[in-house]
Amino acid sequence: MKEWIGVIVTAVIIAAVVVQFIRPTRVDGDSMYSTLENNDYLIINTMKYRFSEPEKGDIIIFDTDTPLDPAMDMSTDSRNILKKGIDFVLGDDSRTKDLVKRVIAEGGDRVQISDGKVWVNEELIEEPYLDPGMTTEGEIDVIVPENTFFVMGDNRTVSLDSRYAEVGFISKDKIMGEVMFRLLPVSSIGTVK
């Protein structure tokens, strides 16, 4: 009995330490398609931005402070029993409003969106992560406030991101971490770029 208690206590301590450095999360939606897909399970590095700043092109998870739609009926949840079990283990209750997006610009940068293209500091940016034919909707010309970031999803036609007031500019203290690794589905396991 003492051995079992020791194993359990050790496992809990190790898990508590690991969670300080990495955190699991699940993609909910298609705003990052085809880089990330709905229901992909990700591991995020929660320590990276404690010692450095997000860089252009990083895929980040952040808190929007937006409450989840109270009309959402969890009883109609379409996840199968395996995915529900994984969510339970990962601590994902699917009720949070954390978003996953890509950093496009940082404080002090000028972002211009016009004719379906994105310029940062008057230079057209290369976006190899976008699917062929993908354009960026909107007409924007803004200076990103200091200590904030301008983010967008890779699926620009459906992404709620910094182009819209509901999300706006993201302050560093809202950033939970950088997407480090895709855990599931098994066919797509590996690092994410």
Automatic annotation (TrEMBL):
Recorded GO MF terms: serine-type endopeptidase activity; signal peptidase activity
Keyword Transmembrane helix: yes
GO cellular component: plasma membrane
Coiled-coil portions: none
Domain Peptidase S26: 2-183
Any GO BP: signal peptide processing
Residues that span the membrane, as ranges: 6-22
Gene3D superfamilies, alphabetized: Umud Fragment, subunit A
Keyword check for Transmembrane: yes
Localization per Swiss-Prot or TrEMBL: Cell membrane; Membrane
Record membrane topology: Single-pass type II membrane protein
Reactions that this protein is recorded to catalyse: Cleavage of hydrophobic, N-terminal signal or leader sequences from secreted and periplasmic proteins
Alphabetized UniProt keyword annotations: Hydrolase, Membrane, Protease, Transmembrane, Transmembrane helix
Pfam families membership: Peptidase_S26
Assigned EC number: 3.4.21.89
Active-site residues annotated for this sequence: 31, 101
UniProt family annotation: Belongs to the peptidase S26 family.
Protein name (Swiss-Prot/TrEMBL): Signal peptidase I
Protein source organism: Peptacetobacter hominis
Lineage of origin: Bacteria, Bacillati, Bacillota, Clostridia, Peptostreptococcales
